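Q: I'm writing up a methods section and want to include an example of the input and output format. Could you take the sequence below and give the corresponding predicted structure tokens, formatted cleanly so I can copy it straight into the document?
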Amino acid sequence: MAEAGLARFLDRFTIEYVRTYAHPIARVWRAVTDPAEFGQWFIPGELEPRVGGAYRFRTHDDGFKGVVLAIEPPSRVRFGGPTGETGWFEYELTDVEGGTRLRFVQHFPTDGDYAETPGALGGDLPGGSGTPWKPAFVGGWHEFWEALGDYLDGVPLGSRLPPSEFGAIAAAWAQTSAPSLGLTEEQAQRIVRDLRRQERWNDLNKVYSRHIRETLPAG
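A: Here is the clean output for your methods example:
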């Protein structure tokens, strides 16, 4: 993968991703702020698009929630935690030639309680204890930006990943085993794409494990 596409650490507790999408700013804004849209490529949830409005992203472990700290359609929205601004993340959109530049920044509290997740893929802390950057988390955002590109371009999520050995195995399974399980071809292909996205995420975990160790600013 191209190193230019990796996240950048602005400081020890702040990370930045930059992407450009070949779509108008209003289209990208809808994709990142409309629950009917971000639930397709990101995480299902709710959002009240006003300062002080509530948001929630629902995941298998109950998700995360808070309040909108700032919103300036169609260029900026900042999400804070339930109790204030010590931790936040934001989208900043800018018109550029050929489309829209998306800048995503996330900041964690400097006094947070950060610990590894033993046994979980990418659950370690390459930057050391007291830092929030697990490879699975950092790589997960990276994979979401790829999914957003697929969504905006109107293609199935994960359908443009390059060929791989695992992909060939998954495709063979879809062809030979899925019918006996009562799956339609469309259902089987969706499972294959979801598995390929998991493969991509795991590969990104490895990339970001090294990237965090090598580029995270010293404490």
